[in-house]
Amino acid sequence: MNETAPWPAHGGQADALLARYGLPADHPLVDFSANLNPLGPPAWVPARLAELAAGLARYPAPDYAEARAAIARREGVGVDQVLLTNGGAEAIFLVAAASAGRRAAIVQPTFTEYARACRACGLAVDAISLAPPDFALDPERVAAQLGGCGLLFLCRPNNPTGTLVPREAVERLLALTEPLGCRVVIDEAFIDFVVEGDERLTPLLGRFPHLLLLRSLTKCYTLPGLRLGYLLADSQTVRRVGAHQPPWSVNHLAAELVAPLLDDGEFMARMRTWLLEERPRLALGLARRGLRVVPSRANFFLVRPALGPERLTGQSPRHTMPEPRAGRRGGHLPGMANVAPMEGFTAPPRRPVDGSTRVTGPAAMALVSTDALFERLLRCGILVRHTHNFAGLDGGWLRLALRDRADNDRLLAALSKEGEA
């Protein structure tokens, strides 16, 4: 193992991790490190791209009028409130560039590109940290730490925790930041995976002109290689941010896919069914295998071995997930209702038939470090996302993407095997 090799900055970087652990480049892997929809891309995309190839000999329309109009229809906003971008990452960097010279605050742990964009554009950065295990956001506390900040970055649902700041808390935060002159940038790259009710914040744009929303079309449609995203804000902000965008930054193929992607209701319905079935099932399976699971509203989970005094003495914990918070759905987080049986989960640690005292099963998982679990899963053909470059997590957690049932079962089987090791 090459412990001096740097950890990759993003998911989906299998080659670097295989080299770090001395594994061959053809080591078979199922990738749980990238938060992409396993159902995509939609089946019609390859044929449509082939049809669009003739347009590669021409420059794209510089204003992307058709793509922006399609987004505006979906979101219920004016076309002048839409800026098409080369993925969500470009939108982040454009917002930072439009605020160069100011001070920014970032709610963390979160996506590392906010800080990188701020540094690249000369913004000083203040960190506002949320505490595990629930990573709850207190609007008053956040606002109190914004002295002198002209920009606030917030991810919702948050990457890597999967948590969703309630709409009421967002509205309160917006009300508190407006008199401070602080623009609030909310990255909703994973909002399409929140399928229990409509949690989009688009309706708030009319009430809060200092609100900017960032979206991605590459996560739910599984098109990260095309780079396609957009920004929503009031028209003046869109013009100001767009002034920093290079001409034709979005390629012809990506721009022409916007309208048909947004019109594909059948694909989104399939994704909703998958999420409602697999997300609670995998959450329960992970918890039953001795992992603490942060309740997620996205297509991934943040987990760690459920360390605690009761684990280290070989006794079973009462549960391995944080207590559910009161909410609209019977006291449980939406989409996590099937996890409720964990409240009474008391599976005893299994012991070998030879009568020895070696602890196996879920209790044994507590004795495994996060890095050791990462390596053992990798050697079993499961690539998960480390958290060494997420400030506030510092490698103590792992992020697992939600995949199809067969892959999820393979992950659970590997974790069961780990508990027997």
Automatic annotation (TrEMBL):
Coiled coil: none
Occurrences of domain Aminotransferase class I/classII large (ranges): 29-415
Pfam families according to UniProt: Aminotran_1_2 (PF00155)
Cofactor annotation: pyridoxal 5'-phosphate
One GO MF term: transaminase activity
Keyword terms, alphabetized: Aminotransferase, Pyridoxal phosphate, Transferase
CDD domains with a match to the protein in the record: AAT_like (cd00609)
InterPro entries per UniProt: Aminotransferase_I/II_large, PyrdxlP-dep_Trfase, PyrdxlP-dep_Trfase_major, PyrdxlP-dep_Trfase_small
Sequence segments annotated as region (Disordered): 311-331
PANTHER family: HISTIDINOL-PHOSPHATE AMINOTRANSFERASE-RELATED, THREONINE-PHOSPHATE DECARBOXYLASE
Name of this protein: Pyridoxal phosphate-dependent class II aminotransferase
Protein's organism: Billgrantia campisalis
Organism lineage string: Bacteria, Pseudomonadati, Pseudomonadota, Gammaproteobacteria, Oceanospirillales
